[in-house]
Write a structure and sequence with these properties.
The complex is a heterodimer. By secondary structure, chain A is an alpha/beta fold. Chain A has eight helices and twelve strands. In chain B, a hairpin with a 2-residue loop joins β3 and β4. At the A-B interface, α2, β7 and α3 of A face α8 and α9 of B.
């Protein structure tokens, strides 16, 4: 599914990722844990193709394609989804119309007709209720004036609507209260399947108590220093990163 | 942003830039009394009309073009222009569409304005103006039945002199300013609308202006009168061929709304904007003014300005009748080297008059976009209210946006609210939307349409979708 080999990345001339390598197989859930400022988000943004992140060297193979050659929209259409740590506001663009448009872009890519308005509303109601999102949130502008929790739920909703096969969640748990964390995690767990992989980037153990990872990686100074199973996360929670 | 995206990016050239291969008949170049007389003769005008023109021409001799616009351009040589051009052998407007030159029908078809009865847009009557003449008007008979007059102004001069005499120049006097006075002297064609008392016009009325001939100015003159208790929605569209010369379009549009009448006037202006190096394009120097003459009357201007090398216009309302309402909704987009200096004037004379101004300026490339507005409360305008909102959106960092709102208040119990914002499409926004699968272009379109949706929604439904597409096309090539 995803094979990262010796990836070196810099941001504004500061090297952040150093020889990062990671393999993610189909259906696997990988957690990447690390202290603040260790460059965890850089992995997420690099994989999603944010042009502010400069590739120095390395290869990334995604479903037998050269990921680094694709632009952000091609990556999305090929099935890569990034749930943003800080979702971006789009003033003037209503959430419902935005969601419908991104759904249709993916349908078009698959050679399908645009979704009927009625069908979309049904779909939106169904998916929103799983996440306890009130429908009136969709008549507001995308992320504008949303609370931290609403923004994160809106990210998971987009993930649910777009059916990606690789999901990168960048600190999705930050800004969520316990109830929101539960409903969001439940929604994510529902989305786990044998052909969908997850990379979950987090600072804390608590998200991993709800979404159980197959692998845990400790990330420090731009690369993975230790890998293991879920018990590694528990140990870090007790002993810290040092 | 989007180094990777440049390759997939293709610039849709100006879609309406073709030239119709039709022989045109022009009168000699230059601006003089003989030219004014010749235009009047071509139009077979009555004596009073010629006198009116000559009065304007005489006045013009003592005027000079205003210079205060925030746009740079070389002086126009008014002697080096053709003031009248029509398709050759076009003596009289064809009685039926079967007699219209197929090349002209084909031209309008290509522009998306089919004129043949079986293909026309349902619910929209169209007057097609080609250079200096109206070549066809649809649904005329149907409108005649309910007493609505919709015809080229040249026909109205002959067939409805009492209305034309009474109202022509009543809102924009022939002494107004250089371009308005020039128009009064040499105006060629445009539309005339009269909605009788108590009639709500059942269809959209629309004029489609096309400049085809080279080195020719177009001097549109439009006059719309809504009698008591009537309503009309009118829309104009404009396009021109791609040429490396600058062509002048100096229009005068006058609206008169009597008691309880409402006029909704929409413009989708897509004149050729010039190329990406700023060569060519239309100079769109237009005077548009509406008079809310009667009590409770309402005039609403909606404009989507995407074309022209220079746009210089202020569709305005004189709120004379008590309780009258003026509205101005505008989206002005400039890309490459385009320059726009546009806005409105709301002159409050009557009591309880209200005005509302929503202006959305979008600048991209190396363009300059200025909102200039005046809200004036006369001493007698008791309890008058204005709300103004001016928002600017910048795309890239080589363009500029300016907001020049002026208020003059001589009334003590009136209120003015003004809001203004300037924002920029950020790389983060583009990346976010692209991460969901949209191309850079579509991502930008989504954000821009969100920005100006409030105004686009004011357009008649038949045109709102077109306008939205136009907004996206106008900005193509502005990122990367």
């Amino acid at each position: 599914m995803l094979d990262i080999k010796n990836l070196n990345v810099s941001v504004e001339d500061n090297q952040i990722l150093r020889d990062l390598s990671l393999k993610v197989g189909s259906g696997e859930v990988h957690a990447i844990m690390g202290p603040n400022g260790s460059g965890k988000s850089t992995i997420a943004h690099t994989l999603a193709g944010n042009p502010n992140y400069e590739i120095i060297s390395g290869d990334v193979n995604f479903n037998d394609k050269d990921l680094l050659k694709m632009d952000p929209s091609e990556r999305s259409l090929s099935g890569l989804f990034l749930a943003f740590q800080y979702p971006i506001e789009l003033p003037g663009v209503t959430n419902a119309s935005y969601l419908k448009q991104i759904v249709n872009v993916h349908r078009k890519h698959r050679g399908e007709n645009p979704i009927e308005a009625g069908d979309f509303l049904k779909l939106l109601k169904e998916k929103s209720s799983c996440l306890n999102i009130p429908m009136d949130m969709h008549s507001r502008f995308v992320n504008a004036g949303f609370s931290g929790g609403e923004k994160k739920k809106n990210e998971v909703l987009q993930l649910d609507l777009l059916n990606p096969n690789l999901v990168i969640m960048d600190e999705t748990d930050s800004g969520l209260d316990v109830d929101a964390l539960k409903s969001t995690s439940e929604a994510v767990n529902q989305l786990r399947s044998s052909n969908r992989s997850f990379i979950i980037i987090t600072h804390y153990l608590r998200l991993l108590e709800y979404i159980e990872p197959d692998f845990v990686h400790v990330f420090q100074d731009g690369s993975i220093i230790e890998s293991g199973d879920k018990s590694l996360a528990n140990r870090i929670d007790k002993e810290g990163y040092a | 942003m989007n180094k990777v995206n440049k390759d997939n990016f293709k610039q849709d050239k100006y879609k309406y830039g073709f030239v119709t291969d039709i022989e045109s008949e022009k009168i000699p170049k230059g601006l003089n009394e003989d030219v004014v007389k010749l235009i009047s003769k071509k139009k077979e005008e009555p004596e009073w009309m010629l006198e009116w023109r000559l009065k304007a021409f005489e006045r013009l001799q003592h005027m000079s073009p205003p210079k205060w616009v925030k746009a740079k351009f070389d002086d126009i040589d008014f002697q080096d222009l053709y003031y009248y051009a029509s398709p050759k052998n076009f003596k009289e407007k064809p009685k039926s569409l079967d007699e219209v030159d197929p090349k002209l029908l084909e031209t309008y078809e290509k522009l998306g304005i089919p004129l043949k009865e079986q293909k026309v847009l349902a619910g929209v009557a169209v007057d097609a103006v080609f250079d200096s003449v109206s070549v066809a008007t649809t649904f005329k008979d149907k409108l005649d039945e309910i007493g609505v007059i919709f015809c080229p102004i040249s026909e109205a001069v002959k067939n409805h002199p009492e209305l034309v005499k009474k109202y022509l120049g009543s809102v924009i006097p022939i002494t107004d300013h250089y371009y308005a006075t020039l128009n009064s002297a040499v105006f060629s064609d445009g539309s005339f609308v009269y909605i009788p008392k108590g009639v709500k016009c059942p269809m959209e009325l629309s004029t489609y202006f096309r400049i085809n001939a080279s080195e020719t100015g177009q001097f549109e003159r439009t006059l719309i009168i809504a009698d008591e208790d009537s309503y009309v929605s009118y829309l104009e569209g404009c396009t021109a061929p791609m040429r490396d010369e600058n062509q002048l379009h100096a229009a005068n549009v006058e609206l008169v709304a009597l008691e309880n009448a409402e006029i909704k006037y929409s413009t989708v202006q897509n004149w050729y904007p010039g190329d990406e190096n700023g060569i060519g394009g239309i100079y769109n120097f237009v005077t548009k003014r509406g008079l809310c003459k009667g009590r409770n009357s309402k005039i609403s201007w909606t404009q989507v300005e995407t074309g022209s090398a220079i746009t210089w216009k202020y569709p305005s309302c004189i709120l004379k009748g008590d309780n009258s309402v003026g509205e101005f909704y505008s989206v002005a987009i400039t890309n490459n080297f385009q320059q726009a200096d546009t806005g409105t004037k709301m002159i409050h004379l009557g009591k309880n008059t209200k005005s509302r101004i929503i202006s959305k300026g979008i600048s991209a490339g190396k363009s300059s976009n200025t909102y200039r507005g005046l809200v004036n409360f006369h001493r007698k305008a008791k309890n008058a209210k204005n709300f103004t909102q001016c928002d600017s959106l910048l795309v890239g960092d080589k363009c500029s946006a300016h907001t020049i709102p002026l208020t003059e208040n001589s009334s003590n119990d009136s209120s003015i609210e003004h809001e203004a914002t300037t924002s920029k499409i950020s790389d983060d926004q583009l990346f976010y939307v692209m991460q969901r699968g949209m191309t850079a272009e579509d991502a930008q379109g989504l954000i821009v349409n969100g920005f100006c949706k409030e105004v686009l929604q004011k357009l008649p439904m038949e045109f709102a979708v077109e306008a939205q597409k136009l907004v996206n096309i106008s900005l193509e090539g502005s990122i990367g």
